[in-house]
Amino acid sequence: MVTSERRISIGPGEGETLRLKGGVGVVYKVNAEETGGAFAIVEHPVPPAAFAPPHTHTREDELSYVLEGEITVMIGRDTFVASAGAFVFKPRDVPHAFWNASSGHARLLEIIWPPALAGAFREMAQAEASPDFRELFDSISRRYGVRGNPELMPELHERYGLKRP
Fold first, then answer.
1. pLDDT in tens, 91-143
2. For 84-122, b where at least 16 C-beta lie within 10 A, e where not — what string?
3. Parallel/antiparallel/unpaired status of strands 61-68 and 87-90
4. Residue 106: closest CA among 73, 152, 146, 62
5. CB under 8 Å to 87, separation ≥6 — which residues?
6. Does any domain span residue 1?
7. What is the DSSP letter of 84?
8. Does the residue 8 lie in any domain?
9. In-domain check, residue 161
10. Which residues are CB-contacts of 92 (< 8 A; sequence separation ≥ 6)?
11. DSSP-derived secondary structure letter, 131
12. Distance, CA of 63 to CA of 118 (rounded, Å)
């Protein structure tokens, strides 16, 4: 049963919008509270050269659907290009990264379950404005069970020219 208190539709261009270091955006489409804590959905606008550096989630799985453009994705030891219409599963405990190597814009729709990680994006965006960014970011990452994987950066830099944001 759907009650009048629960939002059941969100239109194009609607949703709280953030931009993270590296240029990847976050548009909240469905919050955890709206699903009884089952999942959250965010849209990631990914402009040219935007990069989400290698990291590992220890508590969440993510399923991304490429809405527009193409994204280069690294999951574990595999790297591939996912074009509009592709699904990409990023399981917990597996390092992953993604970036837009094209000259066009790209957008992903991402389902995150369980949904706690979606809240981390807000905290990270706020921390980025602080002079204590590194310390705050590390604290946020620990609380949400996210590990950075800087050991993967030399290979990504050598093969694709990527630099940590």
1. 999 999 999 999 999 999 999 999 999 989 999 998 888 889 889 989 999 99
2. eeeebebeeeebbbbbbbbeeebbbbbbbbbbbbbbbbe
3. antiparallel
4. 73
5. 63, 64, 65, 66
6. no
7. T
8. no
9. no
10. 56, 57, 58, 59, 60, 61
11. T
12. 13
> Sorting pLDDT into bands at 50, 70 and 90, what band is 11?
confident
Instruction: Please state the domain count of the chain.
Output: 1
Q: Which two tokens stand for residue 77?
A: 């030891």
Domain that holds residue 144: 17-156
Two structure tokens written together for 144: 């949400």
For the chain, give the number of residues.
165
Q: Is the confidence at residue 36, as pLDDT, over 60?
A: yes
CATH of the domain at 131: 2.60.120.10
- Any idea what DSSP says for residue 116? H
Give the separation between CA 138 and CA 102, rounded to whole angstroms.
Answer: 30
